[in-house]
Structure formats: C-alpha cells, structure tokens
Amino acid sequence: MRGPDSKKEQQSRPHFDEIYELYWRELYETACRRVSAPDAEDILQEVFLSLLKNPAVIENEGSVRAYLHKALKGKIIDFYRRSLLKEAFERNAAFTAPRYSTHPDARLMHKELEVLLEKEISSMPERMQTVFLMSRKQLLSNEEIAHELSISHQTVRNQISAAIKRIRRALYQYDLANNAGTQMVLAVTAALLTRY
Known about the structure:
Blueprint: H1 4-32, H2 37-53, H3 56-61, H4 64-95, H5 98-101, H6 104-122, H7 126-136, H8 142-149, H9 153-178, H10 182-193
Helix pairs in contact: 1-2, 1-4, 2-4, 4-10, 6-9, 6-10, 7-9, 8-9
C-alpha cells in the first residue's frame, strides 16, 4: 500500500527526471576529475538518490545546479574520508594480526605506547584534547570542528598541531629511554592513533 510519501514521490518524479537528464553529465565529468569513473558513478547515484528521497530540498535550496554541485562535493569528501578510515583500519588490523600480537616484545611495546598515548592525550588542556579527539576519533574536518565548537579554523589547526607536537615529544622520550627503534615506535604509534 502506498502512503502519502509515495504519492509525493510520484509527483516529483517527472521533475526529478528532467533534473537528472540536465545535470548528470556535468556532474559526472566533475566527479571524474576527483575519483575514478566507477566511483564517480557510485557517488552520483548517491547524490541523485538523496535528491529523490528529499525533493523538497530543491525548492528550499534555490539553484538546483548549485545544490547538486554542493552535494557532489560533500559526497566526494565523504568518499575520501571513508577511504582513509578503511586504510587506517587495515593498518591497525595489520598490527593486531597474530604475527605482531604473539611476539612478546611487540606486544609489550604496543601496550606501553598505548598507555603513553592515553596518558599524553588525557594530560592535554581540555580544548586541545577535545579538538584532537574530534579530529582523530570522529574524523571531523577542521572546518567541521571549528563550526561545532564555534572557534576559528586557525585555532583548530593550532590545537591539533600542538597536540601532535606533544605526542611526538613523548614518543621521542620513550624511544630514548627504551632504545626501541624509531621505525617500530612510529609504526606502532600510527596504528594506535587511528583508534583515537
């Protein structure tokens, strides 16, 4: 049984088809400058699906073309964000694989660095800690963090930069104290930071 939403959807469908025919090629070519052709097709499908699900956006947003380009830009950013997340997950998975977790030295270093990072992050000033975790844990962009916290983009950059310097300093001291090997420390730390 079709409800009022499906009736509304049917009414907006012809208009949607016109919009699709008018803009898909332009959007596809724009997307192909940033991602591969198959990924561009997937992204465009998401853009037009979201438009089909919420046709009221067209009336509220003004220019349909501007709305579609804005939506495309957002979907491409989401695409790269998901790619980075997947890459980070795969790197982290490599470190939690049995060959790393069964070696006692690697396990010990992993645990020590995990404690070190948690200690360093928890000792950061509240604002710095919040910004850093929003960036690394929630994977928000600097603009999103600035908007969320009502602070300037430059402040977000400064806070993240200061947080990374603190962590580097702590890792450098750990490396000196334990003679752990810089490459190993960096690799384990990179894997741990993806969880934050």
